[in-house]
Amino acid sequence: MRTFFGQPWALVHLFGVEMWERFSFYGMQGILLIYLYYSASQGGLGIPQTTAAGIVGAYGGAVYLSTIIGAWVADRLLGSERVLFFSAIVIMLGHIALALIPGVLGVGVGLVLVALGSGGLKANATSVVGTLYEAGDPRRDAGFSLFYLGINLGAFFGPILTGLLQSTIGFHFGFGLAALGMFLGLAQYSFGRRELPAVAREVPDPLPRRRYPLWIGVAIAAIVLIAVLVLTHVIRAEYLAQIVIWVTVAAAIVYFAVILSSKDITADDRRRVFGFIPLFVASVAFWSLYQQQFTVLTIYSDQRLDRSLFGWVMPVSWVQSINPVFIIILSGVFAAIWEKLGSRQPATPYKFAAGTAVMGAAFLLFLPFVGGGKNSTPLLALVGIVFVFTVAELLLSPVGLSVTTKLAPAAFQTQMVALFFLSVALGTAISGELSALYSARTEAAYFGILGGIAIVLGLALAALTPWVKRLIAPVR
């Protein structure tokens, strides 16, 4: 039987489509913020920097928030595999809109399509990976780490190539390359999708046909309401991050309530979902710092980082490729460590606690460079800080995806994955809101306070771990 680095062969197709999707996603995101706040003479839109950072944070949050839609459609209408396929098409159309439609209109159309498509693909790609493994398969965590490697191969090459095009021939060529990347991923997946297990196409909880009109009406009403709020300026660019935060909080509360009150789950299922709540909170704290690499870290790289290399100035977006390099190097190391330790590896709550605390420590590492002049921070110093970002990420993110599929009740498999992504949505939107507090004048307090809070939260989760372990047992 063919295998993919010791994993089920079908993983190669999911590895590929996710790699190209991340190429397009991070390639576009690597140049998005500077496109928004650069002046027209630089090829940008000239939006105020704090507003632009809030838009990027809100967009990132909306990507993960839309996993609710993708998960619901998968569980009630189409199944995960079909939603994954159609989502890839929507993403490609979004990047085409960014490339071809000028100005704010192109940004609006493009980001909405990419957010909706990425949300559908993210929740369902992860869920389909989970279908490749039987319960108790010891390869699962290593398989998710390998899947994570595919994500970061795309994340490495995307910002480098789109940034190169942006800095030489213009932003829209960079967005166009992102569209081409998604097309390549879609083409590969189109040929390989039939090799996935039949369970990936199953609809776990089919929606009765008599309820179709109701949900069609809800969808139309939601679209109309959003359009009216935008046209009447109730929804404005500077408030987008706050809106996404409150919508995500409401969605998370509703999701937990629906799952916990469902008659389709057992008492043991309910206990494990309760045990997931502290992990959810830690995940929010982690992502609210980590996702600032697309907001504060981009601004920092543009204004405070010395990007000169032998007389040549490196594009701002290339900084986004540092983290994927470390992921590529270290993901295999972490996978090997977890596989080697087997049942002796730290319990998942300890991994979450460590990831949150290490992320806080990464923020504290900015403090020695506070007060420096323009483009004064050495590139090597930032590389070291991003290395710590990466260690924190590998302690929490792939482990979070894996434990979510383990804790999910049978009737809520994809929707539990969406619930994990809601923690990412909330953290990402918070990162956009927090970025408004960052400036050269507030650097010391900004990095010091946020880093300290994350470390305290990590230590608190570590103290609570024995209790959490009892709730999620037998999952570790």
TrEMBL record:
Domain of life: Bacteria
Entries under Pfam families matching the protein: PTR2
Compartment(s): Cell membrane; Membrane
Bilayer topology annotation: Multi-pass membrane protein
Parts of the chain that traverse the membrane: 23-40, 52-73, 85-116, 146-165, 171-191, 212-233, 239-261, 273-290, 310-338, 350-371, 377-396, 417-438, 444-468
Signal peptide: none
Domain (Major facilitator superfamily (MFS) profile): residue spans on this chain: 1-469
InterPro entries linked to this entry: Dipep/tripep_permease, MFS_dom, MFS_trans_sf, MFS_Transporters, POT_fam, PTR2_symporter_CS
SUPFAM superfamilies named in the record: MFS general substrate transporter (SSF103473)
Keywords assigned by UniProt, alphabetized: Cell membrane, Membrane, Transmembrane, Transmembrane helix, Transport
Family label: Belongs to the major facilitator superfamily. Proton-dependent oligopeptide transporter (POT/PTR) (TC 2.A.17) family.
PANTHER family per record: PROTON-DEPENDENT OLIGOPEPTIDE FAMILY TRANSPORT PROTEIN, RESISTANCE PROTEIN MDTM, PUTATIVE-RELATED-RELATED
Protein name as catalogued: Peptide MFS transporter
